[in-house]
Every structure is written in C-alpha cells, then in structure tokens.
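Annex B. Sample input.
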Amino acid sequence: MLNPQNQELASCNVVSNPDIFFPDDSDREAIALAKKICEGCPIAFDCLETAMADSDLRKWGIWGGTTPEERKTMMRNPRTRLRILAETKAISNDVALSMRKVGKTVRSYNNNSPFAL
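Annex B, continued. Sample output.
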C-alpha cells in the first residue's frame, strides 16, 4: 500500500501533469505513455495494490502500469494476476515464474490484498 515514504520514490513524481495517468480508454498512445512511466517504478506493485484495494481507484486511470480493464481481469480471474503483474513490470518475470512454480502468493503489506492466489 502507498504511504508518504514510498510515494516519494514513485516514477510519476517527475511528471508535471498527472492527467497523463487518466487517458481516454480509446487513446492507445496515451495509455502506452502512462504505462511507460510506470515501467521500472520501484513502487509499481504498491501503487497497483492500492488501486486494487479501493473499488473507486480500481475503475480509473493507470495504476502500477495497469489499465482499469487489466485490473478488472485480475479481480475476476486470480490465475491471470501473476501474468499481468509480470507483463506490466509490477513484478519481474523471474519472480512471477518462480512464484507460479512453488504456488506462492504475491507479497503484500495488506492482509486483505487482492493479490493472493
């Protein structure tokens, strides 16, 4: 979950216009730009976890490199969570593969995390 200490580390802090993270659903270029900013962000997973835990945030914008549709898919189908997390670089491919092999859940600061498999 996001907190003031880790928010300072966010890649989006360098963006002067936060509207970049709320593109129109049909604007693929704007979505790609917002996702690119999230790529490699040290707190991408925390950002995504925050959005997933809040039903209002889940519906809007790019959070942790994911679109509302990707988050909706993650909520409906737990088996896709690791794949989407790896694709959006919220976690690395290696971590996702190793977790899938041993059947572990994604780490979480929140006991009610939507990322448990």
